[in-house]
Design a protein that fits this description.
The protein is mostly helical and about 220 residues long. It has helices spanning about 1-70, 80-85, 90-95, 100-110, 115-130, 135-150, 160-170, 180-200, 200-215. The chain contains nine helices and no strands. Helix 4 packs antiparallel against helix 5 (about 115-130), helix 5 (about 115-130) runs antiparallel to helix 6 and helix 5 (about 115-130) packs across helix 8. It starts with a helix and ends with a helix.
């Protein structure tokens, strides 16, 4: 019986060694699998984090620029009347005529990521009011860097002819240096954005709320 047990132990020892030898390989494979998963997860996590960080940084930068160079988020204006808002449907000029109309239209443009068109138009209007040469030059260069330069994230869409004229005139800018560009952007907003604004929730909700108030009053 003792010799049989010894034989059994001898047979089990190589088997145990084989099993033991195979385990590190399995652990290594498992470890590699775990590391691979961990590596992939970390990469994905890193990419996601970087994306989130970039997305967080862009709005902060845009907000900073807005506070420094651009008009405030909304112009000061009294609450528009039902008659005034209804009149916006008659023509684009009526929308752009009052601060309330520009605010509503600007809110709509923001949903389409084209608010820079209104910001550029408003900046041009402000430039026209200036009389001091140094102030005109400073504001003209700011407008150029913000809306005309191809490096700007807020660049507006202009044809090459208008750009060339602006580039030539930037040597000695006047308060009317962007007149052609302003007209081009006004026409773009009129033809492209205004029809969608008339069918947007921004306009319809405002019209409905004013209509309900007039009935209650």
């Amino acid at each position: 019986m003792g010799s049989e047990r010894m034989e059994m132990r001898k047979r089990q020892m190589p088997a145990a060694q084989e099993t033991s030898d195979s385990l590190p390989g399995q652990r290594g494979a498992g470890s590699r699998g775990s590391n691979a998963c961990c590596f992939c997860w970390c990469c994905c996590c890193s990419c996601s984090c970087l994306t989130v960080r970039n997305q967080e940084q862009r709005p902060r930068r845009a907000s900073h620029e807005l506070g420094r160079d651009d008009p405030p988020t909304c112009e000061e204006s009294p609450t528009p009347t039902l008659e005034e808002v209804s009149a916006w449907a008659q023509s684009f000029d009526k929308v752009m005529l009052t601060p309330a109309g520009r605010n509503a239209f600007r809110e709509f443009l923001r949903t389409e990521f084209s608010e820079e068109n209104m910001l550029f138009w408003m900046a041009c209007e402000e430039l026209k009011k200036e009389a001091n040469e140094s102030t005109i030059e400073e504001k003209a260069r700011t407008i150029y860097e913000d809306y005309i330069s191809i490096l700007s994230p807020k660049e507006v869409s202009l044809d090459s002819r208008v750009r060339e004229v602006i580039n030539r005139n930037m040597v000695e800018p006047s308060q009317h240096i962007f007149d052609d560009a302003q007209l081009q952007i006004y026409t773009l907003m009129h033809r492209d954005s205004y029809p969608r604004f008339m069918n947007s929730a921004v306009y319809k909700d405002l019209l409905q709320s004013l209509a309900e108030k007039s009935v209650e009053g």
